[in-house]
Amino acid sequence: MNANWTWHGGGIEAAKRHFGGEDWIDLSTGINPHPWPGAAALAFDWQRLPDPEALAQLEAIAASFFGIEAGHVCAVPGSEIGLRLTGMLIGGPARHIAPSYRTHGEMIAGSVPAGADTASGQGGTLILANPNNPDGRTIDAAAMRALLRRRGPDGWLLVDEAFADADPAASIAASVDDRERLVVFRSFGKFFGLAGVRLGFVVAPRAIVAALRERLGAWPLSAAAIAIGTAAYADTGWIDAARARLPKDAAALDAMLMRLGFAPTGSSPLFRLIDVDDAQALFDRLARRAILTRPFAEQPRWLRLGLPADAATLARLEAVLADG
Amino acid sequence: MNANWTWHGGGIEAAKRHFGGEDWIDLSTGINPHPWPGAAALAFDWQRLPDPEALAQLEAIAASFFGIEAGHVCAVPGSEIGLRLTGMLIGGPARHIAPSYRTHGEMIAGSVPAGADTASGQGGTLILANPNNPDGRTIDAAAMRALLRRRGPDGWLLVDEAFADADPAASIAASVDDRERLVVFRSFGKFFGLAGVRLGFVVAPRAIVAALRERLGAWPLSAAAIAIGTAAYADTGWIDAARARLPKDAAALDAMLMRLGFAPTGSSPLFRLIDVDDAQALFDRLARRAILTRPFAEQPRWLRLGLPADAATLARLEAVLADG
C-alpha cells in the first residue's frame, strides 16, 4: 500500500495523480466537514507582528473553553508541534498506547508501545489519546483520573484530546494543576474544521508552559490563527450547534454502514473505524471511485472513514461500498 | 523606561493606552512599510491540513531565492522558532555578538555575549546577525567565510540573515553544505513586510534539517504562510522593485536626520540607529506625538527608527525631531 495514504490522512493531491478521477471526496481525516464559517469574513493584519496582548486574549478564551485558568494554557502553531516539544521536555522512559496517532510514538525517544489494557495497570509516563484515534475508544474522566494517580512518583500522564471538543465530558483538561504531572493537548483544527490554520494548545503545569514559551518565542502564531481562534472559541452558538449536529451525522453514517453489514466503532463523531477482511482492497476500490479513506500499514483489516459532509456524499460512499 | 518598548518593537497597543493620541506611526520595527501586496487577493484553504507537497514547493522556491538546494531548507513558523530549536540542537558552549537581537542570547543555554571585534578572532560556536540589528553593521560574504573557517574543530557559525533580503550580496546562505558547520536563518516577514504571516527558514546541513523536521512535525506552517510565501518569493518583479526602492527611502530618512544633526548608522535600508544624549527622553517626546520608536534598556543613548512609509510620515517624524 502506498505510504502516502497509510502515513497520515490528507494526501489527496497524490491520490488524484495516482488514481485519476474527479470530484474527490476526502474522508481520510477526522476533520469536521462543516467548518466554523467565520474565517472568510475576518480581515487579518499580516503586516505587523501579532500583538502579545492578542495572543494572551486567545489563550484566555481557549482556557475558558477548556475549563482551566489561562496560566495553564500555551498556544502552539498546531498541536503536532506541542506534542513534540512537550515530549522533549518530559523525556523518558515512557510508554505510548498503540495503535494511536503516529506522533505519540515519536514524542519521547525510546517510548515503548503498549496495548490499552496492559498500560492501564502500570505506572510511569504514559502517552495516550482520548478519544483515541483511529478506534475512537473513549476513557471517561473518572477513569482518566485513576490513570493519573497510577503514574507513580515520577510518571507523567500526557493526554492528546485532539478529538475531545465534540463531547467535552471525557476531558481531563480541568484537572491540570501545578501539583499534577498531567499535560493535555487540544487541537483547534478538527472540531472547528479548520486544520489549515495550524492552532493547538498545551494545557500544563505552569513550569511546562514557561519552558514551552521559551522554546517557541514570543510570536508562535500567525495573525490569522489568533483572529480565527479568538472568534471561533467565542462562538458558543456555533459550538452548541456543532455538538448537536455531529452525533446525528455520525449516526447516519453508522446506520448506513450497518445496513451494509459493517460494524463501525468509535465514540468521536468525526470518524468511524471499520474492520474488513482486506482493507487495502477496499481502500483501492473507494479510491478508484474518487473517495479517499485512511488505511493503516500495520493494521491490514482497518479502514477509517471521516464523516461525510452531507446526504449526497453519504450516498456516494454507500453506492461504492454496496457495489463490492 | 517601560519594558513594553525596550523588550521588542511592535508594542503599539500598549503605547496607545499609555500615551493616548491617535493616528500612530509605528517605527518600532524593521518591517518593510510597503508590504508585498498580493496577500489580500489570495484565497486560503483553511479546512484541510496543508499538503506536504505544497510545503515542499514553498521550500523549493525559497531555496532558489536563497541560492541553495532545497534539501538544505526547512520552513519554520517564524524564524524566532527556528533560532530557538536550532540553538537547542547545536548546544553549547557558545558566544553571541551583542548587542543584537535578544533571542540570540537565549538560543543556547550559557551563551556568552561578545563584542563584534573581540569575537572575530576566536573559535568556537558563534551566533550573529548579518546585517546586525539594531546597528545595521554588515559583514561581507568573504569576511563571513573567514569567520566560518575560524570556528575550529567543533564550533558552528549561526548567522541570522533576517535583514539580508534587501541586499543579498552579503548573504552566506549559498555556502551552507553538509560538510560545513554553518546555519543561516532567513525571515519572510521583514523584507516582504508581512510579519504577521509567521514564516522563516533554517538553511542548514541536511542532518540539522532532518532534526528540525522531527521537532516540528509534518505541518509546521499555516495554509496562509504556504500560499503567501510561495507567491511572494516567486514575484521577482516586486522583489526587484523593493530592492530598488528601499535604499532610496532610507537615503531620504538619512538626509532628513543629518539635516537635523543626527548621525544615523546602519546598512539595512529597513531601519536606522541614532545615538543621542538621552534616548528615553526622545522616545517619550516622539511617543507623546504618536510616533513609536525602539529604545534599548541597556543602551540609553540608542534609538532605532524604522523606515517611514511615505513623505508625509517622514515629514511628521521630522517635525517632532526638529521641535526639541
Provide structural commentary.
The structure is a homodimer of 324-residue chains. Chain A folds into two domains: 3-35 and 237-322, Aspartate Aminotransferase, domain 1; 48-234, Type I PLP-dependent aspartate aminotransferase-like (Major domain) (Aspartate Aminotransferase, domain 2, 3-Layer(aba) Sandwich), CATH 3.40.640.10. Chain A contains eleven helices and twelve strands. The first copy, chain A, has helices spanning 3-6, 12-19, 52-66, 79-90, 116-120, 141-149, 206-216, 223-233, 236-259, 279-288, 311-322; strands at 25-26, 73-76, 94-97, 112-114, 125-129, 157-160, 182-187, 200-203, 271-275, 291-292, 294-295, 302-306. In chain A, the strands form three sheets. Chain A has a seven-stranded mixed sheet with strand order 2-8-7-6-5-3-4, with helices on both faces. In chain A, helix 4 (79-90) packs across helix 7 (206-216). Chain A starts with a helix and ends with a helix. The mean pLDDT of chain A is 93. Chains A and B meet through helix 2, helix 4, helix 7 and helix 8 of A and helix 2, helix 4, helix 7 and helix 8 of B.
In CATH terms, the superfamily of the largest domain in chain A is Type I PLP-dependent aspartate aminotransferase-like (Major domain)
Question: What is the CATH third-level topology name of the largest domain in chain A?
Answer: Aspartate Aminotransferase, domain 2
How many separate domains of chain A? 2
* Integer average pLDDT of chain A: 93
Radius of gyration of chain A: 20 Å
Computed structural class of chain A: alpha/beta
CATH architectural type of the largest domain in chain A: 3-Layer(aba) Sandwich
Tally of DSSP helical segments of chain A: 11
Low-confidence stretches of chain A: none
Strand arrangement within the widest β-sheet of chain A reads: 2-8-7-6-5-3-4
Biggest chain-to-chain interface with counts: A-B, 52 and 52 residues
Give the strand content of chain A: 5-15%
Q: What sort of overall outline of chain A do the alpha carbons produce when their principal axes are compared?
A: globular
Kindly report the oligomeric state of this protein: homodimer
Total beta-strand segments of chain A: 12
Tell me the helix content of chain A.
Answer: 25-40%
Largest sheet of chain A: 7 strands, mixed
**CATH C-level category of the largest domain in chain A:** Alpha Beta
